[in-house]
Amino acid sequence: MLRLNSKFINIKSYRLASNIIFNENNSTLKNLLKVSTLLKENNDVILVNYKSNDQPSSVELATKASKFSKVYEINGDSIKEPERVTSLLSAVLKDNSDVENVIFNTQTLSKNIFPRLAAQIDVQPTNDIVKIIDENTFIKPTYAGNLLAKVEYKQAASKTKILSFRTSNFPLDDAEETVLLNNIEKTNDIPNENLCLDTPHNKFVENNIPDSTGRPDLTTAKVVVTGGRGLQNKDNFEKMTSLLADSFASIKKYGNQKASIGATRAVVDAGYANNSLQIGQTGKIVQPDLYIACGVSGAIQHLAGMKNSKIIVNINKEEGAPLEQISDYTLIADANEAIPQLAKKISDL
Question: Where do the domains of the chain lie, and which CATH numbers do they carry?
Answer without folding.
Answer: 18-197 (3.40.50.620), 223-347 (3.40.50.1220)
